[in-house]
Amino acid sequence: MKLSNIAIVLMLFLVVSCDSNAVFDKYQSVSTSWNKEDVINFKINAPDSLNPYNLFVNVRNTNDYKFSNLYLIVQMKFPHGKTITDTLQYEMTEKNGAWLGQGLSSVKDNKLWYKEGVVFKENGTYDVTIQHAMRNNGDVNGVVNLEGITDVGFRIEKTK
């Protein structure tokens, strides 16, 4: 009887964890620290040229992350050569210092808005690059090795 209960729980978990909105969802691991020169790269084939999609940057952090925000430079290169570069700031904690990400352990998953309602009008491969642009207060030079980020991802979802 116990074995069948475990099987039912596992089947429910698999059904609930399926995500029908995701069109693209990949992560890349960062070594023990994310060097400012390390660029995370994702190659994406355009899902279609008619429907709008929402784009997200996904970040996993641990308690070793020492900042309450995160600055990223995200660049999207279109198949026909056009490039869009955005410098983005995300809040990582509440005012009291509690992490905003999801997760029961010390690793928190953060799903961060990048762009809303994007239509991939050009057929072909889009190239998305992500790098951090963190600085300590009063520092001219950026943080070379950013600790506490374990994975960086990119996600494309169907709009609802």
From TrEMBL:
<keyword id="KW-0732">Signal</keyword>
<keyword id="KW-0449">Lipoprotein</keyword>
<dbReference type="InterPro" id="IPR020018">
    <property type="entry name" value="Motility-assoc_lipoprot_GldH"/>
</dbReference>
<feature type="signal peptide">
    <location>
        <begin position="1"/>
        <end position="22"/>
    </location>
</feature>
<protein>
    <submittedName>
        <fullName>Gliding motility lipoprotein GldH</fullName>
    </submittedName>
</protein>
<dbReference type="Pfam" id="PF14109">
    <property type="entry name" value="GldH_lipo"/>
</dbReference>
